[in-house]
Amino acid sequence: MRYVSSQTDQPVRFVGLSTALANASDVAAWLGIGKIGLFNFKPAVRPVPCSVHIQGFPQKHYCPRMNAMNKPVFEALLTHASPDLSAEDMHTPPEILNGVYSTCTFSSSSSSSSSSSSSSSSFSSSFSSASSSAGPRRFSPIALRPSLVFVSSRRQTRRTAQELVSLLHTRHEHATDLFLDVRPEEADEFSQTVESVQDASLRTTLHHGVAIHHAGLSPHDRAVSARLFEKGFVRVLVATATLAWGMNLPARLVVVKGTEYYDAETNRYKDFPITDLLQMIGRAGRPQFDSQAVAVIFCHEPKKNFYKRFLYQPFPVESCLLNVLAEHLNAEIVGGTIQTKQQAIEYLTWTYFFRRLTSNPSYYDPSLMIQELTSSFASRGDRLQASAVRQRRAAIAAFVDKAVCEALDELLEASALRLRFPTAEEKSQAVTGGDATQAVAVTRRLRHSADADEQDGEQDEEERGQEARAIRAELSALSEEKKPARRGRGRKTCEGRDIFEEEDDGPTSLEPVLESTPLGRIACVNYISPKSAKMLSDALRPAQAEEENRRLSFVDIVKLLADVPEYKQMPVRHNEDNLNADFSAICPYPIDASTVNSPHTKTFLLFQAQMFQLPVPIADYNTDLKSALDNAMRILQAMLDICTEEAQLRYALDVILLFQCLIQATHPARSSLRALKHLRSAEPSRLRRLSCLGIHSLPFLVEHKCPAAVLLKAGFTDKHTHEICEELKKFPRLRVSTRLFVKEAEGASDDEAVFEHSPPQPLRQGDGREGETLVHTVRPGADLHLEVSLKYSNLPPQVAFTPNFHKQKTAGWFLLLGDADEDVDELIALRRVHLHSGKTQASFEFSAPDVGGASFLLTLFVCSDTYFGLDQEIELCIRTEATGDIDEAPREI
């Protein structure tokens, strides 16, 4: 944003919030924030004092260590979140203690509680409303104070919650209300809210006062857990680390159960960043309610001293841009911000990565450590010191240049980028004012940097600003040396000079122009890596099918979707390779037995579980399936864009079919009638009876004038018939009409062109009789304009009917125009439309063949992106006039 601001001279204001940082001045300078706008506090500065307890566990392996932490977590809850009841009170039956409520809210002092005669006295807050108009809510003295338990995975949230409930009933059978505070008048409403929860594990633990929160739950379930905990009805919330950043749910006690998380890409457990732990600890303590807070950290024993030492000495924030630099450069090239390599380097100098590289170069490249050591030992003489500083700057400049070249080469290898010679106009601009323009841009950049340094006002910041400017000068000199100065066809690389794909008239000193390719744009728009786009393009292009002498089947398309690099992050946990092997035995599509521990194989099995509605081995697979489906939508859209670019009609139809199957939880061999409630598990005899009555698929029943009568004849009960008819109202009834226009004004520009409607004519047979086929007769090479009108004959709901998909979705339609002949299989154009107002229009423009007397048949496919079995096909027969034909006046059909 600051780079764009420097180019447009329009200032941008940033407001940033974070945990305590060791290098807050670096972040502020990167954002352009001066000394006046920077506020940095130590981690120990808190509105509520917090005591941190760290306990180590010696178990070597992760799972036994997590199991060993369950009882200590429960003990920590009793020790640090207890309402200060005596041991005698802990064994008192709950019906005796239910009459005693604290008159204050979340006070840490139990001495301020006063007794009242009954549990129903002066409860003022409504359960369903966030406001409490009649006063603060009163809480039971037997219930614990609100506590958060952070775990590393979704599986651990469920297991930890279940263990806490089990320990509660095992060790305190007379005080089972420790985690729950629901008064008698709230019981009915609480039960109704809990019963509305979809997740079975969460529904069970909520009844005992323990909530679960993670990204795998539905939005409704997450909202219920957060609301019940915030209001104080449940006193323990077990959540993943993402809750520490995403929601504001403070508590008296925070327990961090384990400081490691599983990294699917490296297939090992990694430590949480210190900033994440600080964020979790920061949830302890509620201002205005608590006078003190407690945080308990359970970790591996060898790491205990590390956390004791560095927990309140945070590390500086470093950049991770280098790992995804190619994706960022691709996005900027597609957007037109970057057009040359020099601009890419200039863009990189505006990033936080560049600022940290100049301050801590050895973190990003160990080879730069030698230059750091040389520079530090060169203080013995001014001349030696100046030489060492120059060497250090040159090394950093070379590293930046190499990083940009490698990123651009990666885009070239992925066919997301192409290089070309500057045009004559670009050359003339460069000769007359290009260098001046670049000098102005560099001057503007240095001025902004100087302004930021001047606002900062600190000596070390000024030195770092001078260092950055010196390195930028080195980069400019290095770029001048690497500018191509000879012509010729060379290799596609940014490292050397031979980078062009065509000949030039003479030597030039201009840089090659970076242009995005269709694959680069597809990767950028659909948020996938250029490598993924390249892999999909290689698999879906026509040459691939010819080499293998076969076309990709629907199963191959599903396997291709599961094999994209985006699914490398799919976790394969301990012992899940054995679960995958057992689960594959009931899946219809086979897998390679040697790849059961692969995340791509697991994703392939999860897709089959969705399409065939198979029971998954464990509950964790349900949450993994939701993540796989979320990624599948954008990857399938990218596959469809690639099919359009490659003009592959059948592959595009298969991709759309996979869209429908994943959303409706069905497969191509299944009847579309199975989408209805009482037909999903109906016996085949019922479907055969419907077929005898003329209902062969879902459209026949949706469009039937009296579906209830047909269902009753098929043997369905009145209740089931009514429920099926109610579901039929949710399906759209789409009406499609087409009109073909011919461009009449020859030689006119596109803006002046006039299109005249060409109605279809009956095709005359050899004996003079009129046939049933309707054709459009046009002149050879005519420009054609096809107008498609879509309209709903009913009023379907805005939200599509997707009972087996985990998210709400609005229905859209794909319009594909192509030649469906097996020998041709050409996709001419594709459109995606939505009928928000119940109707819409789309248009296609194409040309007729140049050969006279030829006929060709095009098909317009109208496919739903949500519903299975509601697709339509419209054929368009077009004939070109032969030389000497006598045009007959067309008549409307």
Automatic annotation (TrEMBL):
Highest taxon in the source lineage: Eukaryota
UniProt entry keywords in alphabetical sequence: ATP-binding, Helicase, Hydrolase, Nucleotide-binding
Comp. bias (Acidic residues): 452-464
Pfam families: Helicase_C (PF00271), Sec63 (PF02889), WHD_SNRNP200 (PF23445)
GO MF entry, a single one: hydrolase activity
Entry GO terms, CC: nucleus
Disordered, as annotated region: 447-468, 751-770
Domain spans labelled Helicase C-terminal: 174-346
PANTHER family xref list: ACTIVATING SIGNAL COINTEGRATOR 1 COMPLEX SUBUNIT 3 (PTHR47961:SF4), DNA POLYMERASE THETA, PUTATIVE (AFU_ORTHOLOGUE AFUA_1G05260)-RELATED (PTHR47961)
UniProt protein name: Putative activating signal cointegrator 1 complex subunit 3
